[in-house]
DNA sequence: AATGAATGAGTTTTCATTCAT
DNA sequence: TATGAATGAAAACTCATTCAT
C-alpha cells in the first residue's frame, strides 16, 4: 500500500491510514477478546490482558467498545458474524446421499474443531441464560446457522427423494442432533476424558468419534418402520 | 443431588452437638456454592454471596474450605459425589428391549433436566481445561457415571441377544451419544432457541426432543447392514 | 513422679498434677511465644502458631495469658527473668585481671550467642519505644543485668587496684561497651554480612570478632594519658 | 535521606507534566513507607496508613510497587540508596590524627542519630534473617557503606603513619566497632534506660556516650604492646 | 481445662474505568 | 488518538478472640 500511495499528498495518506488503523484496532481487539473471554469467561477476562494481546492501548479499547460488557456483546456478535464459510457446506451433488452425508459430517467436525473459542463463548452465553442475546445478535445467529441447516436439508431431502433416507426425520432436528454430538464432544473433552480414561482431543480419538457419529446417523436414517 | 437438610431446624444448634455441626455447615456451603458457581463461574462467583445463601459466616467458609478455588474444587467433587440414584436406572426386565431403551432415555432426560447447576459446573470446568480435576475427582466421575453406563449396557446387550439391536455399537459410545443429545439440549437452550425461534425449555419442547432422541436412537439401533 | 505418688489417694494426685500441668502449660506457651515473637514480632506472630508449637489449646493460652499483647508482655518479662546464670559470671580470682577480663568477654559472647530470640524480643521492644516496659519489668531488667555489671566491675576494680587498668573508665560504661560490641554483632549479622561479604555467624567469624573485642578492650584499658 | 520535595507545591500537578509525576509518587510513598515500616515492622505496617501519609491513592502504591512485601524491599533498598553525604566524612587534613578521629566519631554520631527510621528498618531486616536482601540490595549496602569505611581507614592510616595509632587494628574492624557502639546506643535506648535509670536520648546523655566512645577508642588505638 | 467451630472487624489486593498529558 | 498514572469500589482473605460442647 505504501508503495502505491507514495507521492500523493500527505493528508489523504494519513486519513486513509487512520480509517484502516481504526478497523485494524477493532478487529485485533475482537480477536484478543475472543480468546480471553473464551478461556476466562466474562468475569474472569481481564481488560488489561485483552489490550495487551491486541497490542492496543486500553483507552483505544474503551473508545471503540465502550465497556467490558459491550466488548463481550460485540465479541459474541462477531462469533456468529465472521465464521461460517458457506461454500464449504455445499454438498457435492455427484456423491450418493450417504456419502454426501458422511462428507457433510466430516466438514462439520473440521469446522467445529477449529471453533474452540467460539464454542466457549456460546457456552458461556448459555450459562448467562442468553442475557446478552440482543435481537440483532439472534438474527445473526440465524443467518449464520442457516447455510448449515440448508446443507443438511439438501442432503437429507435428496436421500429421501432417492429412497435411501427415512421420511420420519426433520432437517432441523437432524442438524441439532449432529451439532449436539459434535459440539458436546469438543466442549466436554476434559470431563469425558476422565470417564473413558483416554485423551479425547487426539486426532485418533476425534476420528473415532467422527466415524461413530457418521455410522450412527446413517443407520438411523435408513428407511424402515420406526 | 440437592442437599436435603431434612428434619433439623430450630433445635439444630443444640441437638446436633457433635461434629454434625461441621457437616451441616459444609453441606450448606456446598449447596450454596453449587448455585453460585453454576450461574457465575469461578471468577464471577462471589464468596460473600455464597456465605449469605448458606447462612453461614464468610469465615466459616474459609475455615472449612481454605479458599475460593478450593471451594470450587470441592463443589466440583460434590457434583459427582452426590450419588446417582442407581435404582432409577435399573431397566424393568419385563419390557421389550426397545421399550426398555425408551424408558431409559426418558429416565436420563428427567435426570439431567434437574441437574442444571451441575451441568453448568461441569461446563465451567471444561472451559478451565480440566484444571481442577484432581485424580480423586476423576475417580469420583467414573464411579458416578458407571451405573448409568451399566444400565445402558444391560439394555443394549439384552436387545442384541434378542436380535433386535445391532451388534455394531459399543455401550460407552451409545452412552456418550445419548448424554450428548440430552445435555447439549439443556445447556444450549438459549442460543438454540434463537435458531429455531421457539422456547426450548417448555415441557412441550422437551417432550418433542425426547421423542426425537428416542426415535433416532431406536432407528439407529435396528440391526441391518451399515 | 508418677512412680513415687503411686498409692496416694487419687484426689491429691490429681490436684498435684493439675498444678504441675498448669505450670507446664505456662512455660511451654512462653517458650513457644519467645520463638514466635522473636522471629515475627508482635504483629507478625500468630497466636495459632504459638498454641501449636506449645502443643496446647488456644483457649488454654487465653486462659493463662489473657491476650496476645499480654502474652507478649509476659514473654518480655520472662526474657529477663529466666536467663542469667549468675555463677557463670563469677570471675576466677586466680587469673590476672587481663585474663579475667578476657575470660569474662568470652563468657559474655557465649552467653549472648544463645540468646538470639531474647535479643530479638529486646530489639523489638526498643522499636516499640519501650511501650511494654512496665515498672515491674524494668526492675526485672535491672535485677537480671546487675550480676553481669557486678562481674565487670569486679574485674575492672581489681585491675585498677593492681595498676594494670586505667582509672578513667566507669564499670557501667564498660559493660555497655562490651554488650554493644557483642549484641550488635549478633543482631546485625545479616546486613553486616553484606558489607564484609562473609558469613558472620560461622564459628570462625565469631571467634575472630571475639578476639578483636578482647584485644580492643584490653588495649583501651591500659593505663596511660588519655 | 529524608525526602525533601523542594519547590514544587501548588503548581506541582501542572508543571511537572512528564514522568516526574511518577517519581514524585514513588518517592513520597517510599518516604511514608520508611516511617511506617520502621515503627511497625513489615507485619505491623498498614498499607492504608502508608498511602494516607504519602497522600496518594492506595492503588497508586500497588501500581508502583506491586505488593506490600515488594514495597518493603524497595524501602530497604532506598535506605541504602539515599546517598551518604560523602563530603561530611572527609577528615580535615590539618587536624592531628587523634582529633581527626574524634571529629569523625562526632560526625558518625550526628549521622546515625538522624537515621532512627533507617536503623529500625535494618533491624527488622535482620530479624527477618535477611530474607529480603537481594543481591542488588547487598551491593547497594556495600556502596553506601564504603565511603564511611574509607574515611575511617584514612584517619587510621594517617595516625599509624605518624606513629600515634597502633598497627594492630584493621580499618573494617574499627568501623564495625564504632558503628556498634553508636547504633547500639540509639537502637537500645529504651531497655538501656531501664538499666542505668537515666533518659539516654537526652542531648546530655548522648554527649556523654559520645565522649566515652571517643576516649575509649583513642585509648585503644594508642600504640604499645597488646 | 480442652477442643473444633464460629465470628467480626480489619487488611491486602484486584480491576474496570477515567484523567491528564 | 495514544499513553502512563490515578482512582474508587469491591473482592478475597486473615486473624485475634470467643462460643458451645
Structural write-up:
The structure is a homotetramer of 226-residue chains. The first copy, chain A, is mainly alpha-helical and 226 residues long. The first copy, chain A, folds into 2 domains: 2-79, Tetracycline Repressor, domain 2, CATH 1.10.357; 83-221, Tetracycline Repressor, domain 2 (Orthogonal Bundle), CATH 1.10.357. In chain A, 75% of the residues lie in helices and 0% in strands. Chain A contains 11 helices and no strands. Chain A has helices at 2-5, 10-44, 47-54, 58-65, 68-82, 97-113, 116-127, 135-161, 171-187, 189-196, 203-221. The longest helix of chain A has 35 residues, at 10-44. The first copy, chain A, starts with a helix and ends in a 5-residue tail after the last helix. The model of chain A is unreliable at 1-15 (pLDDT under 50). At the C-D interface, helix 2, helix 7, helix 8, helix 9 and helix 10 of C face helix 2, helix 7, helix 8, helix 9 and helix 10 of D. Chain B binds a DNA duplex (21 and 21 nucleotides) through helix 2 and helix 4.
Q: Please state roughly what percent of the residues of chain A sit in beta strands, choosing from under 5%, 5-15%, 15-25%, 25-35%, 35-45% or over 45%.
A: under 5%
Cα end-to-end separation of chain A:
63 Å
- What's the number of structural domains of chain A? 2
Tell me the quaternary state: homotetramer
- The CATH class of the largest domain in chain A, by name, is Mainly Alpha
Mean pLDDT of chain A: 86
Low-pLDDT parts of chain A are 1-15
CATH architecture of the largest domain in chain A: Orthogonal Bundle
- Largest interface by residue count? A-B, 60 and 59 residues
Largest sheet of chain A: none
Helix fraction of chain A, binned, reads: over 70%
Amino acid at each position: 500500500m505504501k508503495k502505491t500511495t507514495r507521492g500523493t499528498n500527505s493528508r489523504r495518506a494519513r486519513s486513509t491510514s487512520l480509517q484502516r488503523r481504526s478497523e485494524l484496532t477493532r478487529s485485533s481487539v475482537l480477536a484478543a477478546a475472543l480468546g480471553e473471554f473464551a478461556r476466562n469467561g466474562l468475569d474472569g477476562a481481564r481488560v488489561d490482558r485483552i489490550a495487551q494481546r491486541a497490542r492496543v492501548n486500553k483507552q483505544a479499547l474503551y473508545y471503540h467498545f465502550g465497556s467490558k460488557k459491550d466488548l463481550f456483546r460485540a465479541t459474541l456478535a462477531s462469533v456468529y458474524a465472521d465464521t461460517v464459510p458457506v461454500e464449504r457446506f455445499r454438498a457435492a451433488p455427484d456423491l450418493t446421499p450417504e456419502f454426501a452425508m458422511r462428507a457433510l459430517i466430516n466438514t462439520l467436525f473440521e469446522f467445529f474443531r477449529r471453533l474452540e473459542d467460539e464454542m466457549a463463548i456460546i457456552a458461556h452465553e448459555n450459562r448467562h441464560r442468553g442475557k446478552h442475546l440482543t435481537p440483532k445478535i439472534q438474527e445473526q445467529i440465524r443467518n449464520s446457522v442457516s447455510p448449515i441447516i440448508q446443507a443438511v436439508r439438501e442432503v437429507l431431502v435428496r436421500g429421501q427423494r432417492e429412497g435411501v433416507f427415512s421420511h420420519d426425520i426433520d432437517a432441523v432436528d437432524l442438524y441439532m442432533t449432529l451439532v449436539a454430538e459434535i459440539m458436546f464432544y469438543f466442549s466436554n473433552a476434559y470431563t469425558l476424558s476422565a470417564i473413558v480414561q483416554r485423551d479425547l482431543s487426539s486426532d485418533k480419538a476425534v476420528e473415532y468419534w467422527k466415524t461413530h457419529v457418521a455410522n450412527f446417523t446413517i443407520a438411523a436414517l435408513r428407511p424402515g418402520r420406526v
